[in-house]
Fold this protein.
Amino acid sequence: MNTKLNRLEKVDLRQVWLNESSNFTPWLAQKENLELLGNTVGISLELAATETAVGAFTADIVCVNTEDDTKVLIENQLEKTDHRHLGQIITYAAGLEAVTVIWLAERITEEHRAAIDWLNDITEEGYNFFGLEIELWRIGDSDIAPKFNVVSKPNEWARNIASAMSRELTEDKQLQLDFWTGFKTYMVDQGSVIRMPSAKPRAWMDIPIGRAGIHLAAIASLWDSNANTCQTNELRAQLYLKGSNAKNRFKLLEQMRSEIEDELGESLIWYNPEDAKMSRIYLRKTVDLRNYEKRTEQYRWLKEKLEKLYEVFSTRVRDL
């Protein structure tokens, strides 16, 4: 059988977007396009504002990283990068207190790629600079499709190694780091729809769910909250709500409690302390985190519960 193959044709950016501020920025700010960009760099983005004033200038797009509620600055160019925009992104990031910067251009020059690499090298863990090139392609008479290419990004591996070498982990911290390193590998190997963050020596991993102020969390705690002891440990899969809207959002979800738990197939623990600006909705299981023979079983339980919570809550929290 002879299958007819066609050729990819590159399309000039200015053929689609004549102007950065009036054409390209509004396009990129649309939810599905921010999602495409976010998937490319591994960040869940929620639009906060466009053309935001910073002194006498305006930043193109400001987003929120829904995993940790930090600000993300996106600066656009429909041509190759230049020194003016390099200065602007640093100025805007400082003025907006953004911890992640995405510089998007038709072409990232070698000198500016080196500048982005240098910024990633000298800034502490938690600050991230990305350089991306955007292309447009089509096949024959097909619709034009955008493609983002990462040219420069934070070297998380090097940062994690440097961070680990800078301090000696306690036995408990090493246990946590080993658990999450293995769990992230397990989730990838199992083809989970949930994208896990980098493993760190702590009791939790936060997972974006597409709404600022709300996230999923995987908990591997040395404290068993049910028995009030450290003799046994605890796994939790939970939805975490924080900030000034947490209580109202919790009440809205609680009104759907029966519907949610029927869909989930089991009862949830609904925790809403009056004296804290946070609420939790979760499932828990008593475990022994030091029993390595049970590790796969623990990973299986946590994966199943996180995926169930994601399926049940992801659409609901975005509609709040």
Observations:
- The chain has a mean pLDDT of 89.
- The chain has two domains: 8-159, 168-318.
- The first helix runs from residue 13 to 16.
